[in-house]
Amino acid sequence: MSNASLMSTPDDRTKNISQIAKYLHRWIECQQDYHSNILVRMRHRFSNIFCFCYGKRDGTFLTGYYLFIKLLYCANVVGQFFLLNAFMAMDYNVFGFEVLDYLLSNGEWKESPKFPRVTLCDFQIRQLNNVQRYTIQCVLPINLFNEKIFIFIWFWLFLVSVLTFINYFSWVFYCTFKEKKLQYVKKYLKMEHEIRTGMDKKLARKFVETYLRDDGVFILRVVGKNSSDMVLTDLVVNLWKIFKDTYVPSKQSNRSPGSDDTDYFRLNGGDTTKENYV
């Protein structure tokens, strides 16, 4: 739906993004804990470290589940190397490095001992009741093609493994550090000039850490990767307005930028009921 908004008219795009924001707001509220005690606060703290070990109400379930699936991708591509090594019954894990080393040192292609083209073959010839065994030199031209095929497979798996690990660690980096998540959301709020005062910055931190949390920021990243910055900016701003309308008193939301911001916003950690946002 967010991707379809790119090709729609401005009015339709505004309506679609508004509906997406309302749906996300309902989903975020359904994932919140509506009571607070020492066990809930301890669980929230541990879920920030072991993000896929706890329930969906900790705000880290989707993020942890996604990182776990990414980790399985990494294990899969590494397992392919060991599987082929067991299938080939040779030291296939370093086969590509050996080929590169030989090409760089000698500058020409040479027959690999792992895929011999000339070898000794044993066969039997029956003569009457006697079986004669012979060992002769034979040519294996198919190994000329097998060698090229398995070299291509090795480099393909190596490229896939490198890209998979880079992608995994980049997501771990983005999903682990709180400041990165805060900067990511604040960037789109600043594009629409939604952060004007020091108290707006504090409110933005609560918006990210207590309202969106890890799963909310993760969904925004996924939306941004599958649509455009324009759609994501409108979506973040709509969620920001819903957040302020829901949890911030209107008399404080309409304060002028130069007014005293001492008691503008107060939020207790862990409990996300409306009473604790003010």
TrEMBL record:
Keywords: Cell membrane, Ion channel, Ion transport, Membrane, Transmembrane, Transmembrane helix, Transport. PANTHER family: INNEXIN, INNEXIN-5. GO terms for cellular component: gap junction; plasma membrane. InterPro entries: Innexin. Structural component of the gap junctions. The keyword Phosphoprotein does not apply. It is a multi-pass membrane protein. It comes from the Eukaryota. Its main location: membrane. It comes from Mytilus edulis. This is Innexin. The gene is inx. Residues 251-278 are annotated as: Disordered. The chain crosses the membrane at residues 65-88, 149-177. GO terms for biological process: monoatomic ion transmembrane transport. Belongs to the pannexin family. It is found in: Cell membrane.
